[in-house]
Write a structure and sequence with these properties.
By secondary structure, the chain is an alpha/beta fold. The protein is built from 16 helices and 14 strands. The structure holds 3-hydroxy-3-carboxy-adipic acid (HCA) and copper (II) ion.
Length: about 450
């Protein structure tokens, strides 16, 4: 059964411009444990005192997951992992020619000596050991087998097959892992696949098929450069496509949202599984199918993740989707009225990026000539911002205008400097947008006022 090692706290914190507080790390570790990952790589204590402190606090939580400290091959660094109370040390030492020559200035034999000496040292401290041949996928295969077997003999019980540059393809990964497994002494094989070509999860799944044991993930696919497989994509793929039910999928959405907020690193809407659009349908043909039977255009039920499907109303939309949206609000219209409403929506849709329920209700009001007294489910809000005194208000305004969902921005007098009007689909999207606005440089404080009802002046 596939194992997951989540390394959001180590590889994930290597994402450019991302740093977590100790409390945030504790929260992430607890959520990962609730999800049921087998191992949590909590950091490399030699990086900084606060990384060491976080590993120590996480190790003391008594979680079900095994806690791992990452380390270079140096006794002082391994001592720090031991001092943190971690169960296991993951020692990495590169094995490819380019890394040995250009970075480490060591021969292959010298490398084996250093690796084995430090594994034996870690074992003497009572730590379990994983050995990572960094850049394994560009390492001469015969040398890779030799160095891994030497590491296992020295006391490592796991080898991390690291595709450090993300250069593998699934069929190569399958062949290479199968060949490696056939040649290694008994040990578990981890797959650490980088996503430089967008193939990380595909490679990891191929490696598992070939007999590897464990996939390394991060929440939201964080990590150096383009990161490694996303935890939610990995778990849901194994759950739905491979029938693996050992992980708890329910907390995945919440954890992904939490990571967006604390990392300031927001996901593209079209990201698989947790992206905002993962269950949003647009064209008339698709929405018509979805309304008849969601299985026509959904790979799985969004309820698995506690999510809901969404149908976008715009110029691509047909009558059935508009009728269904009006029905959600209990708005009854005749077929003739519906046709006029749809044609107005199509005309507006040519010039507007997004139509909100407020707009659709307004169109229905005009077309039917009746006052429709309902409160839209989607949200309009006014966000008031105070700007740091040393920052130009206009520079903040410029940044805000570049954000999707911000419809207008005003510089104002009074306690606040700026007011921004925003339209979003739901409270989660509002929350994410507020967090995104708070990360804009120069924003000191925000206050959000939700719009309860909107009146149009003259109409
Ligand atoms: C790095 C090291 C590593 C280690 C992977 C592992 C890699 O380059 O920072 O220990 O499993 O990608 O090789 O993350
Ligand atoms: Cu890595």
């Amino acid at each position: 059964m596939v194992e997951i090692l989540d390394t959001t706290l180590r590889e994930g914190e290597q994402t450019p411009y991302v740093n977590f507080t100790i409390d945030e790390k504790l929260e992430i570790a607890r959520s990962l444990d609730r999800i049921g990952v087998d191992m949590i790589e909590a950091g490399d204590p030699s990086v900084s005192p606060s990384v060491a402190k976080a590993i120590e606090r996480i190790s003391a939580l008594g979680l079900k997951a095994e806690i791992i400290g990452h380390s270079v091959a140096l006794q002082a660094s391994i001592d720090k992992v031991k001092a943190c109370g971690a169960h296991r040390v993951a020692i990495f030492y590169a094995t490819s020619k380019i890394h040995l020559d250009a970075k480490l200035h060591k021969t292959q034999d010298e490398a084996i000596g250093i690796i084995c000496e430090h594994i034996a040292y870690a074992r003497s401290l009572g730590l379990k050991v994983r050995y990572t041949p960094e850049d394994a996928t560009r390492t001469d295969f015969e040398f890779l087998v030799k160095v891994c077997n030497a590491a296992i003999e020295a006391g490592a019980d796991r080898i991390s097959f690291a595709d450090t540059l993300g250069i593998m393809q699934p069929h190569d990964t399958f062949e290479r892992v199968r060949a490696l497994k056939a040649r290694l002494l008994p040990c578990k094989i981890d797959l650490h696949c980088h996503n430089d070509y967008g193939l990380a999860l595909a490679n990891a799944m191929a490696g598992i098929r070939a007999g590897a044991d464990c996939i390394h993930t991060t929440v939201n696919g964080l990590g150096e450069r383009t990161g490694i497989p996303d935890l939610a994509e990995t778990i849901v793929s194994f759950h739905n496509l491979e029938g693996v039910e050992k992980f708890n999928v329910q907390p995945l959405m919440e954890l992904s949202g939490y990571l967006e907020r604390v990392s300031g690193f927001f996901m593209a809407p079209n990201k698989p599984i947790t992206g905002q659009n993962a269950f949003t349908h647009k064209s008339g043909v698709h929405t018509n199918g979805i309304l008849k039977d969601p299985r026509t255009y959904e790979p799985f039920d969004p309820a698995l993740l506690g999510r809901e499907r969404k149908i976008v109303i715009d110029k691509y939309t047909g009558k059935s989707a508009v009728a269904s949206r009006l029905d959600e609000y209990g708005i009854q219209v005749s077929l003739a009225e519906l046709e006029v409403i749809v044609s107005r929506i199509k005309n507006i849709g040519d010039s507007r990026k997004q139509l909100f329920d407020t707009d659709i209700i307004e169109i229905a009001e005009h077309v039917t000539g009746r006052v429709i007294d309902v409160i839209p489910h989607d949200i309009s809000a006014m966000i008031l911002l105070e700007v740091e005194s040393h920052v130009y208000t206009t520079s903040v305004v410029r940044r805000l205008r570049g954000l999707t969902n911000v419809s207008s921005v005003y510089e104002i007098t009074g306690d606040y400097d700026i007011s921004a009007f925003v339209n979003v689909e739901n409270v989660m999207a509002l929350n994410n947008l507020i967090e995104e606005i708070r990360t804009v440089m120069g924003v000191k404080r925000t206050e959000t006022r939700m719009v309860l009802k909107k009146y149009n002046g003259k109409e």
